[in-house]
Design a protein that fits this description.
Layout: E1 4-8, H1 12-25, E2 30-34, E3 39-42, E4 51-55, E5 71-74, H2 78-90, E6 94-101, E7 110-115, E8 121-126
Helix pairs in contact: 1-2
């Protein structure tokens, strides 16, 4: 369904340092990084799409977050949701909702929410039942 997602940043070095450990924790390897452009992209384990792209806006204007916009990353388990949320806060992110069950979505929805240093809202979630 999706080819890629792009998040804008006003400080590529800071944003790259923020997202690198998060993508590693989620098992999404770096596909490319060009600090001269500047932009970078991560892909799902094993390749393919969608890609998660990070960079300065193409039009040269300042990046800013949108109200009601969010990207949600799928985590392989609840422990990874916890770890990713902690990494985000350790690296300059702001909590928008700690890891927990969100029963109003469905009985197994376990998610955490944070904003990156540029204010983009990010979710990390897992939908699997605990066995």
């Amino acid at each position: 369904m999706f080819s890629h997602f792009h998040i804008g940043t006003n400080d590529f070095a800071r944003a790259f340092a923020f997202y690198t450990p998060i993508m590693e924790a989620l098992g999404n390897p770096l596909r490319f990084s060009d600090h001269a452009k500047p932009w970078a992209g991560w892909q799902p384990q094993g390749g393919g799409r969608p890609l998660f792209l990070l960079g300065v806006p193409f039009d040269g204007e300042a990046a800013h977050s949108g109200n009601g916009q969010m990207i949600a990353f799928l985590a392989p388990d609840r422990a990874t949701v916890d770890k990713t949320h902690a990494l985000a806060l350790e690296n300059g992110g702001r909590c928008e909702g700690p890891p927990s069950l969100r029963l109003h979505y469905h009985p197994n929805y376990y998610g955490a929410y944070f904003r990156d240093p540029d204010g983009n809202k990010i979710c990390v979630c897992n939908h699997d039942p605990v066995e």
